[in-house]
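[step 3/7] inverse_fold.run input=structure_tokens len=246
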């Protein structure tokens, strides 16, 4: 465990990350992992801690975005049901390739640039994504998520927005639920293998819950869509740096 001062700094960092990520429907796992890495937390503690925090923050985002009327179940369920077994397969293969991660970092940076400077009206008249298309997308993203060890929302949200399958806030709601079910699946898999959640997770949980409430409330009810897209661009750029560096 870190010292009390280190724990306080880590808790504040995770609170801020939760506020930023939850406003666009993400759980913040990549930011928590980065913060724990800088704090010198043992790698064996990092993954289960990040999963627990991810579950609670994404659950808050689902609640707030759904209560604000941004839910589309017909889009979510094919994505989710196809993603869970694909994420398991990707996690089982667990390929680690610097070139592969560099390509992913480039793709995320391109999506971030598109969202930050997008001029066309992506928040009107979303196109219909048929169930079989959503299932294929969920399968691909679930596999990719399991393969590289990061939440699928970082790929799903920009695709939903850029291809106009959902407006910005609906994409946030769908992505939050997508992250939630896959994080629960990942934590269950970890537990089945005999893993235990470290006490660090419970020390950090109150801060991320506060950040998650602030971010999800603001994102679902107050934030203009263009500002949300720019927040999402920042999240994608942060994830890209994580891929490029780690």
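[step 3/7] decode complete -> sequence:
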């Amino acid at each position: 465990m870190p010292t009390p001062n280190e724990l306080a700094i880590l808790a504040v960092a995770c609170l801020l990350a939760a506020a930023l990520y939850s406003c666009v429907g993400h759980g913040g796992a990549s930011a928590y992992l980065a913060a724990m890495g800088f704090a010198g937390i043992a790698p064996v503690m990092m993954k289960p801690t990040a999963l627990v925090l991810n579950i609670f923050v994404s659950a808050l985002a689902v609640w707030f975005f759904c209560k604000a009327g941004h839910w589309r179940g017909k889009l979510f369920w094919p994505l989710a049901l196809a993603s869970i077994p694909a994420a398991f397969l990707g996690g089982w293969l667990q390929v680690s390739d610097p070139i592969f991660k560099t390509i992913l970092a480039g793709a995320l940076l391109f999506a971030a640039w598109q969202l930050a400077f997008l001029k066309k009206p992506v928040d009107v008249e979303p196109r219909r994504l048929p169930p079989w298309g959503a299932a294929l997308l969920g399968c691909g993203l679930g596999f990719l998520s399991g393969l590289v060890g990061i939440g699928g929302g970082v790929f799903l949200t920009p695709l939903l927005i850029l291809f106009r399958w959902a407006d910005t806030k609906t994409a946030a709601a769908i992505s939050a639920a997508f992250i939630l079910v896959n994080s629960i699946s990942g934590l269950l898999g970890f537990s089945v293998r005999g893993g235990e959640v470290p006490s660090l997770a419970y020390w950090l949980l109150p801060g991320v819950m506060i950040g998650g409430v602030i971010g999800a409330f603001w994102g679902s009810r107050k934030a203009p869509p263009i500002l949300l897209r720019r927040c999402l661009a920042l999240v994608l750029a942060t994830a890209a740096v994580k891929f490029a560096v780690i």
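[step 4/7] annotate
Residues 4-245 form one domain.
The chain has one domain: 4-245.
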